[in-house]
């Protein structure tokens, strides 16, 4: 999901793989897996855990042998429950390693009629994997799903409605409506929160059906639920639907009552629920300074959260509300001081999270440079930083450069100009020129640094330095003509048109 209207980047997936941290560079955007909506990430994590739990014994991962499918079919139809469960585990193990066991679909479906929760979970996992390729066979499971949605055990009710939502077969969606409607009003909050997410999944399959059946209104009603987990999932589902919707009007009506409900749920829901709630709060415009300050006070504790996504979402809300508050107020001054430590802490994370944090910080510094004006050292490049982190740090260093810290900045930039990465060296040399243009009092020192680099006689360094000096000449005409002779001495070594 990429929200082009969002204020900050955020790491939204539970997975820690590189894809989770892939960044769409756009004004105030959010980072997450493009191929997987948030509710699917959560589901995938659950199922991954289920697979690992069920498949801990290596005996299930036997090599393919002749007649294996026939043997499994026989075991699946065995009257003994233990034999049947072992057979389903073998089927899931084969499916996990990429073997085609779709031929066993009717036999596995027959195993759904059981009170054993572990076996039911495994069968549901199989159905989610093969229902799309066997839509006609998947219809066989509908009656059991509907029956399970009325089971006395809330875990089974929730599992049934969740699985039905994950089976992306048009023929099944019409059968899902009535069980889903009941589950949205279920007495157990676990079932209600699962059903809320299921509405978003159903909307992804058939948006018109969701609107016609009145599920959106039921979701909005869940925003007033007594359970914070239900509220968080309702917000998450409405956010997903709002993003996919073409109507353009927000689905969550933000008023004082809704805001109070969201802030109450914020303290008790999961970290990913907090992210969705905070993102929704960012879309709210307080009616006056007092309300803005009150909301900020309740959100500020989130800055100390261990999850980077929660921290960045909280910063997003605070940054927006600070624009409403008087800039010279003591509250804004205190809030400004509180924003720096959590942002600096994020720079101790893994490179992907650092990059997301740096993209946010870059934008924050453009709006409020005073937040991080005393934190220049944390943006100094480390030798083992990936190039994408180095370049972001370089850009922020220039934005934070001032008369008080320019000597420190130039010393660092001169050091970077001796590194082995040619592209980074060029960027570092250009950064010296940008400092000269930004901080007029430092121009002479910057020119002196550039002349020192020209004396190194390193071809690409010399050429980049000359290009940069050209910009300084334009900014300060008739001020540094004395160095033209030095530039001319290196004329023969120039082979790039821009440098010539």
TrEMBL record:
Transmembrane segments: none annotated. Residues 67-500 form the Clathrin/coatomer adaptor adaptin-like N-terminal domain. It is found in: Endomembrane system. It holds the Pfam family Adaptin_N. SUPFAM superfamilies: ARM repeat. Keywords: Membrane, Protein transport, Transport. One of its GO terms (biological process) is vesicle-mediated transport. Gene3D superfamilies: Leucine-rich Repeat Variant. GO terms for cellular component: endomembrane system; membrane coat. Signal peptide: none annotated. Coiled coil: none annotated. One of its GO terms (molecular function) is clathrin binding. Its main location: membrane. Belongs to the adaptor complexes large subunit family. PANTHER family: ADAPTOR COMPLEX SUBUNIT BETA FAMILY MEMBER (PTHR11134). This is AP complex subunit beta. It comes from Timema genevievae (Walking stick). The lineage of its organism: Eukaryota, Metazoa, Ecdysozoa, Arthropoda, Hexapoda.
